[in-house]
Description:
Elements: H1 13-21, H2 26-33, H3 37-50, H4 53-64
Helix pairs in contact: 1-4
Amino acid sequence: MRLLFGLEAQGHIPTILDLMKRGKTWPEIAKHIGWSTIELKKHWRTYMQKIDEEERKRIHHFVFGDSVEYVADIPAPPQAST
């Protein structure tokens, strides 16, 4: 039996993007997919660094629409308010 680990391997990318679009925070997303927040952030950053610029722009537009200008930064869900 082969164990698949990683956001892509486990098919979490579409779910994460949908949750980000709905304004969910890192802890909410992590809970939803059954990961720790720290591991989710680490793997998300790795994923975003390995994809090309056009794909990052596509993700940014999907999550934020035209309301937020793309500035070649890694998109992240909003932080939980304290």
